[in-house]
Amino acid sequence: MGLLLLFTSTLLSSYFHPWIVVNAEPYFVLRAITLTIEPGANVTRDTSVTLRCHASISSSGQEPLSREYTLYKGSERIYNKVMSTSEDFLHQLPNARLSDTGKYKCEIRIKDKSKTSENVELTVTGLSKPVLHVNNSMVSEGEEVIATCMAPGERGSFYFYFYEDSKEIHNMQASSNQAEARLSINSVGSHIIHCEYAVLVIPFVFKSEQSDTLKVSVTELSIAVSLDISPQHNIYEGDQIDITCSVINFPQRSYKSNLYLSQGDKILKVEEKTTFTHSMIIKAKDSVLFECGLEMGNVKKVTTKKVSVTELFSVPTLTMSPAEVFQRDAITLTCRSENYAPQRLKDEELTYSLEPTLNLQEHGKGVYSVKATFRDINITCIAKARDLMKQSEILAVRPKVRASRPRISVIGRAIIQQPITILCQSDSGSLPINYTLFKGYDALNTISVKDSFQQALFTVTINRADEIKQYTCEADNTKGRMQSESSDRLRAFVTEPLKNPALIVIPEVEQIFEGGHLSLICTVTGTPPVTFKFYQQGNKDPLHTTTSNENHTSYEVPRLSKAHSGKYFCEADNHAHQVVSTELVNIEVRMAIWKKALIGGSCLLALSVLVVVCVLCFKSKRGRETYSPPASQTSFV
């Protein structure tokens, strides 16, 4: 009955209050999460460090929410824990080490919500002193020493360094706090060794102090090597020598060893024996220092011996005469060994030859003649005697090309009494080429052209047009050994500057009337084309401009007026760019003749009328004085 009443009550409540949710989960807000380091962010080695993660959470429920904490060092997750209480999450770092140095952060996750704290940096200082052990403090030459270096109580990623007499001889990386190395101490005597280690805390490396030193003594083995060469004296190149390389006091124990013989950088023979003999033909150019050596594990024993070898004949030299040749020139090639051993070698045994052979003509032993070709060639001389052959250095024959007949020309314009630039140039020829400019038979100047971009440019001045033909030039690159090539005479158009300007007026000045025609003719002497400009004084712009291939031109005014009166002049210019100007010419436009006649007639007519009027007035006055008419007549009149 009670269950029925409870069910009925719940059903009615849901019906009349539908907004009420039965068994609803509590709502929560993650407000903040902080990470702190206790007792502090900077601690020394062996300090117990606590990382405290505190979360601020607001919730609508009464019960603590289940939460998951994750602790990170850098980007690496180092610890994870699920808690159902509201207490802070604590992570212990007992006996902190330098490897614990780094940036930490804490993350909390509740259901589908998470929040991460800011990074907090922990710095741990101090490293333990390394400890070094060796398996044996007294070893024989070539025997290895096993050394162990330890970093007590440290953890992390390590680098270990081993030193012999303060010089690093070995290093290695290890993930544990100790490393074992096999050290080879080759020199005999007492040696001081120590070790150090470094802890890697990305991106930094922290190095420890050095360990205590240990003394290791190395005793020498009684092994030695012997080197015998026969013969030892009066050795000439081409002789055979016998070399014996052997080991003295080889140990009874079976050791893997190599006995070798070398000459300079070349290994002549290697054997796994205690003795051997090597025979060879000696050459003077070979290294005369021989080495016999024994390699047995880390043990190396060496002895050397030097042999004096006399040349049978010297390396030949090849010379050319003359030292400078031109194409098709005859040259002499001489091949000679300056020294040879007459007590061992007869003169006729020593022969010479050239490579390539070319079209050689022999003129005695080692002397040849040939004509220089049109191309460069490398020649070597070979001297032979018995089984020996020696080759000279390469002689590069570079036949020069004779300078071709030069061409002479003017750069720009040739203008009288102005600087003229003359170019002398050969189309072909080996540099340097000396160019000389002549006027008639007189040499004026010489220019040496040494680079392909350089030109032989001469500057002269002439006073007459026909002077230009007197210039020639020569090109020479044989240093006077051959006749120089000479150019043709210089031919160029010569510009004469303008002079003697004159302005002619047609008709004459006294006959210039209104309505008439005026011609202004400007003349000069000089080289056309000429540009003429006519001006009226007071006007900066020319009245007329024209270019003529004649030395004169005209300017026409077809119908004159009083406005044309004034002073006129003309300017002329040609390629010499020396403007000349005429003197001013005064032109007065007179009144037209018909106007003068009209004015004269008008004046005569006016005078005639005035005379008639005066006569009539005189006669009228005289008549009144001699006759007085009656009153009636007077009134009538």
UniProtKB/TrEMBL annotation:
One matching Pfam family: Ig_C17orf99
Domain Ig-like as annotated: residue spans: 26-123, 501-581
One CC-aspect GO term: external side of plasma membrane
Keyword check for Chloroplast: no
Annotated TM spans: 597-618
Domain of life: Eukaryota
Name recorded for this polypeptide: Platelet endothelial cell adhesion molecule
Native source organism of the sequence: Larimichthys crocea (Large yellow croaker)
Record lineage: Eukaryota, Metazoa, Chordata, Craniata, Vertebrata
